[in-house]
Amino acid sequence: MSKVVLTLALAASGLLAQAPTPGPLVRLYPVAVDANGQPVTDLTADDFKIVDQTKAETILAFHKPRNEPAAPHDVLEFSNRTSGVTPHTTVILFDMINLVDADRLENWKALDKAIPQLESGENIYFYVLNLEGVLIPIHAMGPRAADDKTWPAGVATAFDKVMKASSHARALQIGAEEQQKRTFKALEDLANTLAAFPGRRDILWVANGLTTVSDPKLTSCNGDWVECALYVPHLAVTLAKDGVAVDPYVLSGNVNADVNYNMDQMTLLTGGHFYSRQDVRTVVNQVTQGAVGGYSIFYDPGPDNWNNKWHRIHVTCERKGVKLQLRERYYALTDSRPPLERTKAVLMEALQSPTDLAEIGLRTKISLLADGKPGMHLDIRIDAADLLLREQGGKYSGAVYFLISDRSATAALGEPSVLDLHPELTAEQYKMVMKDGFPLTQDHPTSDAAREVRVIILDQNTNTVGSVTFPVK
User: Fold this and answer.
1) What is the pLDDT of residues 232-276, one digit of tens each?
2) 384 closest CA partner among 75, 47, 61
3) Are 204 and 187 in contact (CB under 8 A)?
4) Distance from C-alpha of 32 to C-alpha of 325, rounded to nearest angstrom
5) Within 10 Å of residue 31's Cβ, how many Cβ atoms?
6) Domains of the chain
7) Is the pTM of this model over 0.85?
């Protein structure tokens, strides 16, 4: 078996000035199911055909759903993926501001009864959007809350307290525009927090409709609220950036044609699914199951694509009997920042994040340096399937940054070390790293102030990131 040879150039943070300048990519998260609604997990990039407006697109990066046994960890080995299955995080949002008064009590009682019956509360969170448009956490997102499987059993007391405090009519000063604005802000705030979680992310939005107000600046419009209403471009861009789908859920109450239309349009905007009058446990299971058949696709629509207009996407699967669930439009916001600034922003988010990011899988085994030197030796494996490795002339090339940052108990210390990697692999080497991971070794001296070390990998072609943090002592 041939050896993968990497050329590493160590430099200060000024190395980023030499970064390649890929244009913004469009990322899709299609969910594939068969005729019986079961996940389809063995599709390839060739099975997908994408048309953006009227232009056929070429897939640049394609990631399958993960559904394998978790690889065992060695002693002093750390990973940002504790499972071989694509993770999934769900937030249940009980939206009082978009429930008519007559339906609010009925929905409250239905949720009060159903949530304690969930099979597990692991990676599920619960918020209320009250009548003032304020998000109230019942079971809030956070590192320690992620593994709490039993919280649904004791949720009734906190939920009932919030609901009893909201037993009044919506304030008169909250008109239709303000109602829409506060609803979108709540969805965006939840999405921004969800963005730190790996895998698929869903907001199960319990509501009976959506009040929208047309943008007065649009003199001609087709009546479609997505393209006509205020604040929707901002919502669409935020949810797309965070990779979050909204799943409208009419639990009970009045439903009419307008409600169905609004909910359907929200799914086409975000890639979610519309649920109506189904049991909460069934819906949560179906939303969670979406991660099992969830793919990730990148394509480059070209620099002229970003024109501050709505774009429609048509994605088909060449395999018969497979149905796809994904967003069908996006707002092509012009990003005036130079590509270098976009890359720096992503790296800063990874450095400052309170938790590790897992879009790129990392495993790091640590050992002592030779001769008793202070610091550690790092043996790192990067999940090569998460990188964009371009094939040309029988060789595969990529471009990634590798950062090592010392940390206190809460924040980064000083300037990180930066490595610029431009691997070029033969076909044999490519097969090897796709199976065993991309190997990287590095000696890292640490300071007395360091309590942790964070390793960060950024794919320069897609601006996706993975990080893993481990203790120094």
Assistant:
1) 999 999 999 999 999 999 988 776 777 788 899 999 999 999 999
2) 61
3) no
4) 7
5) 23
6) 8-22+338-471 (2.60.40.3020), 26-65+294-331 (no CATH), 88-289 (3.40.50.410)
7) yes
